[in-house]
Write a structure and sequence with these properties.
heterodimer; A: 377 residues; alpha/beta; Rossmann fold; 8-stranded mixed beta sheet; 15% strand; B: 194 residues; 9 strands
Chain lengths: 377, 194
C-alpha cells in the first residue's frame, strides 16, 4: 500500500507489434509507453473522471507530491481535495503527451528496433496523435466517458481536439488560453526557437544522446518562449529597468539588467529538465494544429456533443482572446452549450498557471453544473 | 421573492422555449427560466464578474458584446431574445433590435420610463435631472446612454413597423394599466416582426 500523501507516476504500454499506433501522418509507431498519474477515486459507475492536459513542457505530475519532493505538481493549486478539480469528488488523470521527454514515448526514447534513441527517426506527431494516445490510456483504465477534460495552452488544444475527435467520450471540455489553429505569429516564434536549437553545434542532427546536449541553443529557444509567455505589464512590474547587482550601467556586454539574468536562469534551468529534440517535435505538433483544416471552423465543430468552457486572459498576446472568441462563435453557431469568460490578468499567457482564484471560481461551479446536468447522480 | 419584472417575463415565456438574454447580468432571470420553465436559456454579458455569478447559478453565458455577438446565430434560432434593462445602455440600438428580431421569433424588451410622474416632478419643481428608484444614477455616473419614455419606445416601434404584442407596465413593484407613460416606472414590451 502506497502512502496516500504521495502520488506515483504509473506507466502503460500499448501499440506493440503487430498493432502499432497509426499517426495522423500515416506513419506507424509502436510500442508506445504513457506516463500518467491519478488523483482521487474513480466511482463505481466510472462517471467522475476528468482528464487534465499539460502544456508544452509540462508532465504527468499535475498535483500532489512525489515522495521526497519539496515541490508539488505543476497545477497543484487547482487539483486536490476541495480545489477546483476536487479530488474528493472527481478522479483526475494526467498523462504526459506523446513526443515529450517526461516518461511517455518520445524522440529520446529507445527505439526497440535499433536499441538506440529515436532521435530524428522519431515520426513527426500531432495534437491529434497525443489525444489518440490518451484515448488508449482511458480504454485501458476502463473509462468510456469523461465528465470533463481540461488544459491550458497546448493542453487547451488537446481539450478542444477531444471534443471534436471523440464527441461521444466527453461530457465537457475546458479550453484555457488556447486556440483552434496556430497562426503565423505563433509558428514564427516556434521557428526561431527551433532554429536556435538546430544551430547549436552540439545538436548534431539530433544525435547528441550520451554526449553534450545542445544546451546553448535550447536555452535561447526557452528565453524567447518565456518572453512570449509574459506580458508587457508583467515584465515591467517584475523587472522594469532594475539593474543586476550594479549601481550603474557597465558600458560593456556583461549583464546590466535583471531581466537578462532572469531569462538566462530560465534558459539554463530548462536545459536541465527538457530534451532538445522533444522541443522540436512538440513545437512542430502545435504548429501543425488546425482543427478546421481548410474548412470553416463551424464545419469542424459540427459533431461536438460536449459542453464547453472557454477561458482566455486579457494580457495573453501569444494566444489572444480573439482566438478564443473565434472558437466561441463557431461553437455557438453549432448550438453547443458554451460558457466563455475573458479573465482579467496582467500575467500574459502564463496566467493559466498563476490566476487560481478566478479559475477556481469558474471551474468549480462549471464542473458542478456539468455533473448535475450531464453525468453524476 | 422574485422580482416582478422577472415574474412577468417568466409568465410570458412558454415552457421549454429557447431563450437568449442580452446583458443577462448575474443570470438570475436565466436561472429562473431554466428552473421554472425548463427553458434552453443562454446569455451574453460584458462583465467577467457577472459571468462568475452566472456560472455559480449554473447558467451558460458567454462574455461578449451585444452589439456584435448575435451575428453567429441563424434566423429564428431563439423563441425569445430578452433585453431587460439593457437596451438603454446600448450604443447601436437599431442594429441590436434588428438582430434580436432576426435571431428571435419574439423579443422582450424591459426599459425604465424616464418620463414617469416622479421624474417629471423632479424636473419641473426642482429643475434637476431626475434620480428615482428605477433611475438611481446621477448625471455623471449613469451607465445609461439613452433616455426615453414608454411612449418614445412605442413610437419607435410604430416607425420601425415592429408589432408590440403585449406591454405590461410596472410601478413600485405593481402592474399599472392606465396612464402608463405617466405612472409606470418601467415597461415590458413583447415584440415581433410584422
Amino acid at each position: 500500500m502506497s502512502d496516500p500523501n504521495f502520488v506515483q507516476t504509473l506507466y502503460f504500454t500499448f501499440a506493440e507489434p503487430p498493432r502499432p499506433l497509426v499517426l495522423k501522418s500515416g506513419v506507424s509507431l509502436g510500442p508506445v509507453t504513457v506516463a500518467y498519474e491519478l488523483y482521487g477515486e474513480l466511482n463505481a459507475a466510472r462517471s467522475n473522471a476528468i482528464l487534465i492536459f499539460h502544456a508544452f513542457t509540462g508532465d504527468a505530475h499535475a498535483a500532489s507530491y512525489h515522495e521526497g519532493d519539496a515541490k508539488p505538481g505543476w497545477w497543484a493549486d487547482m487539483i486536490g481535495p476541495g480545489k477546483a478539480f476536487d479530488t474528493d469528488k472527481y478522479c483526475v488523470i494526467c498523462s504526459n503527451v506523446l513526443g515529450s521527454c517526461k516518461g511517455t514515448t518520445g524522440s529520446g526514447s529507445i527505439n526497440p528496433a535499433t536499441g538506440k534513441p529515436y532521435g530524428l527517426t522519431f515520426p513527426v506527431i500531432t495534437i491529434e496523435d497525443m489525444v489518440d494516445v490518451q484515448k488508449a490510456l482511458l480504454d485501458h483504465l476502463g473509462i468510456k466517458k469523461l465528465l470533463s477534460c481540461a488544459g491550458g495552452s497546448m493542453g487547451g488544444m488537446q481539450a478542444m481536439t477531444w471534443a471534436v475527435r471523440y464527441p461521444e467520450c466527453v461530457h465537457s471540455a475546458i479550453v484555457i488560453a488556447a486556440c483552434h489553429r496556430h497562426t503565423a505569429q505563433q509558428i514564427a516564434f516556434h521557428e526561431v526557437g527551433r532554429q536556435a536549437v538546430v544551430a547549436d553545434p552540439d545538436w548534431k542532427d539530433g544525435n547528441y544522446y550520451g554526449q553534450p546536449v545542445p544546451a546553448r541553443g535550447l536555452a535561447v529557444a526557452r528565453m524567447l518562449g518565456h518572453i512570449t509567455y509574459m506580458s508587457w505589464v508583467s515584465m515591467e512590474q517584475k523587472f522594469g529597468r532594475k539593474l543586476l547587482d550594479k549601481e550603474k550601467l557597465g558600458y560593456d556586454f556583461s549583464k546590466d539588467f535583471e531581466v537578462q539574468n532572469y531569462l538566462e536562469y530560465r534558459g539554463q534551468s530548462f536545459v536541465e529538465r527538457f530534451d532538445a529534440n522533444s522541443y522540436l517535435y512538440l513545437t512542430k505538433a502545435m504548429d501543425y494544429f488546425d482543427l478546421a483544416g481548410g474548412r470553416k471552423l463551424s464545419e469542424a465543430f459540427k459533431g461536438i456533443k460536449a459542453d464547453l468552457l472557454v477561458i482566455s486572459f486579457t494580457s495573453d498576446w501569444l494566444y489572444p482572446s480573439s482566438q478564443s472568441q473565434e472558437m466561441v462563435r463557431a461553437l455557438k453557431a453549432n448550438d453547443v452549450d458554451v460558457t466563455y469568460v475573458e479573465m482579467e490578468s496582467d500575467y500574459g499567457h502564463d496566467a493559466f498557471l498563476v490566476e487560481f482564484e478566478d479559475q477556481t471560481r469558474a471551474i468549480s461551479s462549471y464542473l458542478a453544473k456539468v455533473g448535475r446536468e450531464r453525468s453524476l447522480p | 421573492m422574485i422580482r416582478l419584472d422577472y415574474e412577468i417575463i417568466a409568465g410570458i415565456i412558454e415552457p421549454g422555449a429557447r431563450v437568449l438574454d442580452l446583458g443577462c447580468g448575474d443570470g438570475e432571470l436565466l436561472s429562473l427560466l431554466k428552473q421554472k420553465k425548463n427553458c434552453h436559456a443562454t446569455g451574453i454579458e460584458i462583465s467577467p464578474q457577472q459571468i462568475y455569478r452566472c456560472m455559480e447559478r449554473g447558467v451558460s453565458v458567454a462574455q461578449g458584446n451585444i452589439d456584435s455577438d448575435m451575428d453567429v446565430y441563424e434566423d429564428k434560432r431563439f423563441d425569445y431574445v430578452i433585453l431587460n434593462e439593457s437596451l438603454q445602455q446600448i450604443m447601436n440600438i437599431e442594429k441590436v433590435l434588428t438582430d434580436a428580431l432576426r435571431v428571435g421569433k419574439k423579443v422582450i424588451v424591459g426599459i425604465p420610463n424616464f418620463c414617469n410622474i416622479r421624474a417629471r416632478a423632479q424636473i419641473f419643481f426642482m429643475g434637476q435631472v431626475p434620480v428615482t428608484e428605477s433611475l438611481p444614477y446621477k448625471w455623471y455616473n449613469t451607465p445609461n446612454l439613452r433616455f426615453l419614455s414608454l411612449k418614445d419606445f412605442r413610437d419607435f416601434c410604430v416607425e420601425k413597423r415592429i408589432v408590440v404584442e403585449k406591454n405590461p407596465c410596472l410601478c413600485n413593484g405593481r402592474q399599472v394599466r392606465y396612464f402608463t407613460n405617466l405612472l409606470a416606472d418601467s415597461g415590458i414590451f413583447v415584440l415581433r416582426r410584422n
